[in-house]
Structures are given as structure tokens and as C-alpha cells.
# Entry
Amino acid sequence: MNTQPILTTQNIKKSFRDIQAVRGINLTVYPGEAYGLLGPNGAGKTTIIGMILGLLQPTSGSLTIFGETLNGSSKHLSRRIGAALETSAFYPYLSGRDNLHVFARVLGGVPDARIESLLDFVGLNARAVSRLSTYSTGMKRRLTLACALLTDPDLILLDEPTVGLDPAGMREVRELINELVSQGKTIFLASHMLHEVEQVCRRVAVLNQGELLAQGSVEELVRREKALRLQVADPQAAASRLANLPNIGQVTTQNGYLLIDATLDQAETISAHLAQVGIYPRRIEPVGSDLEDFFLDLTANQSTDHVH
Amino acid sequence: MISAAIQSEWLKTRKRPLTLWVIGILLIALLFYPPFMAGISKYLVIDTSQGLSIWAGSLPEEALAVAQQMRESVTLPNIIPTILGVAASLGRVLMVILGATIAGNEFTWGTARHLIGRTRDRLAFVSGKLVVLAGLVLVLLIAGLLAGTLSGSGITPMVRDGITWDFLTPGLFLRLPLALLLTTLTVLPYVLLAFTIALITRSTAAGLSIGLLTLLIGEPILAQILASLSEPWNQLVFYTPLVSN
# Structure
């Protein structure tokens, strides 16, 4: 990646009395990408976002955004950073539209037309005049996203954007995020919902107990189409036939299926080899690991083999 | 950034239901104060000029003069200083409630974190609120003065034989803004105390309780203590907001 990073953290640490919430994290986020910060509850995700927003000061280390090191005089960056926090709060007695106006006025320079277009973007036009206290969780999340986009920021921080949503709501938020990425926005998404991150993010960092365990592209970090599963009438005979076939890995049987350490490209060769001895697979399907498998393995072993 | 914070704060405050309640209660109370006092003075007189004297029912000779004074105080031109005093007294309580709530609710709802997280400007966040609160106190006193004076002018013909307008001098219009400003200054300390306590403790209840306790109990006790001191220390009592009103 040749472009300058939009966000970097240099060995940032954060302690709350005796608790080390963040322990020397180095992150790099590039412009125009969706970057996922993965970790269970208590991993330090929200603390890192708090430091990026200036709500918390790092105990040590530094953060650089848009080429500037963050300090007390970084208020001018507030318009270039949008944030949709997990606990983003609004004024319950105001309508959705008025809530956006409150933030628009305090941020300054946000035309009314922008507010209306954002309400349309997140699908809240019909309920814009309703009091926030009448909004569902999904509607509040969408309003949070609209608020984060008021100043048309370059960097958008999302902290658990789909928590508490039903599947339809989750999909709506994912589609909005994908739309933002297609518009060239940089998304920094903190979540413990691995499946959600896998669908949206190109690069991820994995945290646990304040430590960075891995960072890199999703494809590099997980195995894809690692194995093939075959349904055959006689798995033992098929395993014996394939034992000496070159360019494939381990062959095992499991629950009546044949598991072969090979890629989908090799399925035709394997099938033809079995057919020579009268074994015809009823089904051949790839069996890949996903981000969840990778995450569980990593947090179990606390490995840093894949750190980039 | 502070002007932007003021605009934002004004939007929040003018649409807050509690603000409407505060304005409504104050204006209604001041509208009804003159006719209420004029009416009740026929049946109930309280005189504190020499100790405490209360007459109720058919009034004796000595109470009639005090009753007339009560009626005079709520008619033109005396209604002006009277209603300012009443507005300040009631306004202190109402604005302490509003001031504590404006600060405390931001933490109850989590909006303080959200706003400051976006703007990175704590000073603007607080300053905007203070400016709007101070402005609201002044606006409330002006509105209350107008409402009470209007009401008082309505009952003046019933108490006296018509209205004489010779009190409308240039001097009055010069003294009135100063009177309003000074009255505002007697209200603001309590509002600021309640606001500050609520902000520091992040608790509306703390701001409310300390603000109201100071207003209703703390300062009267302090005034009594100051007044009992020897010269020149007993002069300090005239600088307490309640007494200086």
C-alpha cells in the first residue's frame, strides 16, 4: 500500500488506575478502506475510539490522523472525523431532525439541505419530526449514523453499529456502510460481531485484553477453501485410493465424509482419480475457515504470527 | 465555536418542555399576583413593619391602612418594583431547577459525551449553556415585568380613581434597565451554583438540592449571621443577593 495512512497509532497505551485497558497498540488505517477492529467485550476497542476522538488521553504513545499528531489543539480535525458510538445519545424530547440540527449548529457550517439529504440516506424522512423517545433501536442507530456524517467527514468511526438490531436492521446498516465505502469514505469499525466485520471490512486488527494479536487483510488472515468434503459410498476405500495422489494434503474420514486437504481447483482431478476405481462422489463441497475460526484460534493461543 | 455552541444550546433550551413550564408558571403567577393581592387585602392583612401582625376577616381600623398599602403596591406605578421583586423571588427557584436540569441531563442522557466527542471543545459546551441561562434569566424578568405591570395597570382603576401617567418620566426609562440588570444579578448566583454543582457531580439531583437549600435555607441563615456581627462586618449582609434585591 503506497498511500499515506489516514490514521496510525504509535504504541498507544491507556491505563485506568490498575487496569491496563490498552497495551501498546500499533494500528494503521489507509484512506478509502473499511478497517475492522475486532475483539470481545473489554478488549479495548471503545477505549481506542475514545482516544481517537479526544475523549480520553493516552497514558503513553501517540495518534496521528490526517498526518497530524493528536493533541489538545486538534479541534480543527473534528469536522473531518465522524463518530457513531455504541452509546451515542440524543435528546429524547427533540425530534430526529432537531437532534441533527443541534449537532449541526455546534459543529457549524452544515446546511439544512445536508440534514435533509442525510435523513433520506438513512431512511428516516418519514419519522424526522417524531420525538426521539418514540424511535426504535434501529432508528436510533440510523440517526447516529446520520449524525456522524453531518460534516461529510473523511474518517468515520463506528463503534458496534449493529448491536441490538434485528437481522433486517443489521443488513440495513451494513448496506449503508458499504455505500459509504463506495463513496470513498474511510470506515473504522469496532465490533465483536465477526460475521458482520467479515462482510464489510477489507483489513482487520484483532484485540484481546488490550493487546493487538494480529493485523492484516481478511483474506490473508483466514484460510479460504482449505479443504474439500466428499460424500462417497465407501470413505475408507476412497481414502486409500487418494493416499498417494500428488499435490493434495491429508485425507481423513469424518462422520461418513471424506475430508481432503485440497482446494476446489483440485476437485476435478480428485473426482477423476476416484472414478478410475468406480468410486463416484455424490457431493463435493469446499470447507473453509472463516474469521470466527481464525479469531477463536488466535485468542485461544494469543499468537502474533500474522502481525503486519 | 462558542457562538455555535450558543446557537445549539438555544435550540435545545427553547424546545425543552421544562423551559416552557418555567416560563408559563412565572408568567401566570405574575399575571395573577396583582388581582390576587388586591382581592385578598380585603380579608387578610399581614404587617411585618413592627413584628408580625395578621388580621383576617373583618379588618380593624389599624389594618385598613396596611391593606391600602398592599393594594397600592400592586397598582401603577408601584407595581413595577413590586413585580420585579416577586419575579426575582419566584424566578430564583424556577431557574435553579432549570439550571441544574440543563447541566445534569446532559450526563443522564449521555449527550455530553456525544457532543464533546464530536467538537473536542469542553469550554464551548459549558460557555454556551451559561450564556443561554443568563440570557433566559433576563428575558424571564423582562417578560414577568411586562406581564405583572399589565395586570397591575388593569386593576389600578378599581383601586384608585383612574390612572395617572405622570410617573412615566425619562428617568424611569433610564432606571428600568439598571433595575432589571441588578435584579438579574440577584438571581444568577443561585442559578450558577446549581448549574456548577450539577456539572461537577454530573447529577441533576445534587445541583437541585444544593441550589435550593442554599436559596431557601442557607442564605437566610447567612444573612442573619452577618447582620448580627459588629460594625463594619454587619454591612456585608447588604451584599447578599436576597437582601440586596
